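User: Predict the structure for this protein chain, please.
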Amino acid sequence: MYTTKYRPNKIEDFVGNKNIILPFIRWLLEWEPSNKKTKCALISGVNGVGKSLLVELLLKKHDYNIIDLSIDDDRDKSHFNEFIKPLLKTKKTFDGQENCLVVSDIDSSGGDYGFISSLTDCIKESQIPIICICDDRYSQNIKPILNYCTDFKLAKPCFDDVYRLIYKVVISESIKISKSSIDKLYEQSNGDIRSILNILQLGVKKTDTNKNIQNFSIFDTTGQLFSQENSIDEKQRFYWMSHDIHTLMVHENYINNTLSVNDSVKRLENISYSADSLSDADVIDAVFDFDLSSYVALNNIKATSKCSKKSMIKFPQYLGKISTINKNKREKLIGENDKLIEIIKSAQPKVIKEKVKRATKAKK
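Assistant: Here is the predicted structure, written as structure tokens:
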């Protein structure tokens, strides 16, 4: 995997955001448990900018022991009280390494009961540095911890920084790609280095990158995935154009586009083959490891190998149902609010009359 092969092993090789490194090191080395406003470092930035990688490289450089709490771990209130809080009082390991707690994806904690309140308590009580990582610095979910945080906002790496990495990759891997194609690759990925490396590995060198991504809708790209005329390399290019939704699109349409065969048993075997591939893609995608995204792509393409574009591509019903559920929830809340307002309005005259009566009696 290019994302593993070209992953930097030292902070000097980190791509972009050089202006963040020294202030971050200063915060880490000058950290004091008595300083309320700097007890936690908040690392924010878009996907693929290298937030977790930067934290890992800096902590390893300064010989810290990383206590990692990711989105895959239990993060409810009881887990914090039982397992995390005791660790925050231990400044060093038996080997003399200083401890540091790293909490990932703190803005994606909707299903974790008491997560943010427990994390806030940990920050207040901690005797070791805490580093929190998020995509959305302005999420309302993380508002309670902001008073204790030092902000480090990572920006999209500039083209020159990314170009140096791409140049190294294309030379090492003997990839033939024009300068204009690299420009478009950078713009289309929005500077997401993981995405760029995946595209380079998955065959961009063999495809036409001059065609603008905006010329294709998700219905066009899904149809191209089902087409038997396209090679695997071509399907990979179409997949990455809308990779966030293609799994749902393939899942919605693969049965109606299964290869036509006279033998009904063979047709069921084809459907089963596609379903198994989509299941594998879901299992891998559930790990939340971006290094595995190319395997998700390949399993989606594998699911279409037993299909042929023969019917109209439909939008996923799942998204429509979710939209309807959310709409019904909003309408229910609005209706309940309206009823509450009516109750308050109807109660006001009665309250006023009671106050007038009391005032009259008091004067008498």
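Residues 204-214 have pLDDT under 50 and may be disordered.
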